[in-house]
Amino acid sequence: MNFLRNLNKKPKKYQRMLGIHQKQFNILCANVGYVLKKRLCITEANTKKERKRAPGGGRKPKLTKIEDKLLVTLLYYKLYFSQEFIATIFDVDQSTISRTIRMISNVIEESADPYLEKYLEEAKNNCPKGKTHVSNIAEFCREYPDLEEIMTDGTEISCYRPQDNDKQKEHYSGKRKRHTLKIQLTVSSSKRVLDVSKTYPGSVHDKKIFDTEKTVDKTTRYSRHLVDKGYYGVDKENLDKNILVPFKKPKGGELSQFQKQVNRYNSGKRIVVENVIGKLKNNRIISSVFRGPIDSFNQIFRNIAAIWNFKLATTTT
């Protein structure tokens, strides 16, 4: 494709247009190709129906290369052009762009960060149980350094007003004064995304999401877990976990010097999750008004979080 060829002439444009560098794009492209091939082999093995046409028959598609398909998907995520506009750039039909984005979106998370879904579960299974020796705890912390200090926070993304009256009431956020989708992130102090919740209507409170997702059960008792005032009360409900919630100023009173210091420490540490959310929202698909079906949003957000983790991993190596 001429678009990719022109992009390769100026590699610095990769970051601005796709959100990743050229070398990272090439690595991710190879990973996507491997996952697609693996899934195709599984599908063919499970399909018992005989083919009526030999492989390769029919009209030849224009978007055949994996790099072109990944390019289209990342361009859609980062700049959120309409599919008709992207189709014009690549000289294909809009339906081709739609099918391509849907296909690649189904494999990006596994290609970019296959541990996003199972990292916390694996860590909890390997966590020392009961009364254990200090050396065992130290070994666990060395094996899972991202769990030493974690932060949880929610974010809202604008969406179109649902036509159904009950649904539009659920999605109306009194805080944002518009219809939104809400999602919760758990992030490590190294800025790695550890967990992405399901998508909830904008009217659902942060603590409700925290309780519904059983976020506290996903973490270990050796993790220092920092949250904001929206999660007030979770520390008292989970005394066996190390959860730090900011102190609320009492009505008609003042916070003590110690409480102010704790709040400053908390806010200074929690800025990490705010920064990560800001970085993820450099992708306009989750920072502007979401135009697609609501049930497709969660996978898109997870894909962007997985790409962020992929960027962190490939930048440090």
Secondary-structure blueprint of this entry?
Layout: H1 2-9, H2 13-18, H3 22-46, H4 66-79, H5 83-90, H6 94-105, H7 108-112, H8 119-125, H9 134-143, E1 149-158, H10 165-171, E2 172-173, E3 178-188, E4 193-196, E5 200-201, H11 206-212, H12 215-218, E6 224-226, H13 234-237, E7 242-244, H14 257-280, H15 297-316
Helix pairs in contact: 4-6, 5-6
Question: Can you give keywords for this protein?
Answer:
317 residues; alpha/beta; 7-stranded mixed β-sheet; 15 helices
Structural class: alpha/beta
Rg is 22 Å
What percentage of the residues does DSSP assign to strands (E)?
5-15%
Largest pleated sheet: 7 strands, mixed
Helical amount among residues, as a percent range?
Answer: 40-55%
**Total beta strands:** 7
Count up the domains: 2
Oligomer: single chain
Order of helices and strands: HHHHHHHHHEHEEEEHHEHEHH
Low-confidence stretches: none
Global shape: globular
What is the terminal separation in angstroms? 30 Å
Annotation field: number of helices: 15
Q: Mean of residue pLDDT?
A: 89
